[in-house]
Fold this sequence. Notes:
Its EC number is 2.7.13.3. It is found in: Cell membrane. This is histidine kinase. Residues 98-150 form the HAMP domain. The protein is an alpha+beta fold. The chain has 3 domains: 2-127, no CATH class; 157-222, Helix Hairpins; 232-379, Histidine kinase-like ATPase, C-terminal domain (Heat Shock Protein 90). The chain has 11 helices and 7 strands. Helix 7 packs parallel to helix 8. It is elongated, with a radius of gyration of 41 Å. The protein binds adenosine-5'-triphosphate and magnesium ion (MG). The site of adenosine-5'-triphosphate has 23 residues, from helix 8 and helix 11.
Amino acid sequence: MLVRQxxxxxxxxxxxxxxxxxxxxxxxxxxxxxxxxLNVSITVILxxxxxxxxxxxxxxxxxxxxxxxxxxxxxxxxxxxxxxIVDVSVLYWRLIRRYRQMQLRHIISELHFIADGNYDHRIxxxxxxxxxxxxxxxxxxxxxxxxxxEDERKIEKSKDELITNVSHDIRTPLTSIIxxxxxxxxxxxxxxxxLLKYTHTAYVKAKQMKLxxxxxxxxxxxxxxxxxxxxxxxxxxxxxxxxxxxxxxEADKNGMTIQVNANPASIKMDGDTEKLVRVFDNLLSNAxxxxxxxxxxxxxxEKVGTEAVIAVRNDGPPIPKKxxxxxxxxxxxxxxxxxxxxGGTGLGLAIAQSIIALHGGYxxxxxxxxxxxxIIHLPxxxx
Length: 383
Ligand code: ATP
Ligand code: MG
């Protein structure tokens, strides 16, 4: 998950420029003049209308008993307050409308500023009503767009890194192959034995390249968002016992023993066994390759709640603290020279992590003077 540094800007009110204030004043003055003219014309029309006078007198007759009619029908006491209320409302409505237009203009100019490449900037205005919602939506949109751009950049960068690493890792064995084949091509060998030695080295290096390409293929395959996962029901304890048996001979050659502790003896769960075997194969071959000097490999398989927890431990030399987090990065090797010697590509744990994540689980490593452990948590059931 991404952690993005967003510039927090203090909310502030929109401050109008002097030009906008004059615009607002002019709008107010023009509106007042227009309204006054309108009031005068209406008064003139009302006082001059004979029909209206007739209506007034007829109504006056009907209500004369209850009302002080002279006061009620007096233009100065009745019409002027109405004029005043209407005028103030119209003035307020026009000024507010103009003020909103100005706020919108400020928002648009902020948008232009962001669009000019200032992606850290957000519209900082403290507004109310619909405009506040517009600003929140725009800021949210800018946030998600910037996050998408950053993600895209990261993917691009990691692709470049991948190409650089692969080119580097392929170039090294390829240079050897070309070198040894060149010696053969130029007949720079003295006897059959030399010839066989050169072809053997070229063969070993070619195999190393094949291993890298296979690993890389596997890695890109499990990293795809739509990678198919073939879930079947199986017994994890049994699978681990089987794998331990497969590695026993090799462990024996290295002077190591493999011990499995399963609790309970049978742990039924769902998973893609072909992919999971790939994970445990790598963990066990790592324990054999890098656990030099150690004597024991222990695999604990446990059912804990709704999870299967598998710990693969070996008692070799510890992994430095600062390397523990990076172990799962592709091409990461704790000790470049030592790993080159053992022929690893540094992709095994990156592949393992992707496979475990595909199953909805997680993997991490711990290491101290006694044990180096790789601990996997896998949900028993997958929806
Ligand atoms: P690959 O598995 O792709 O053939 P690799 O074994 O070098 O190559 P990883 O399995 O990803 O790559 O392991 C990364 C590195 O982590 C190894 O090179 C090694 O330095 C370190 N490492 C892994 N397992 C252990 C272990 N059990 N003890 C000590 N170091 C380990
Ligand atoms: Mg490995």
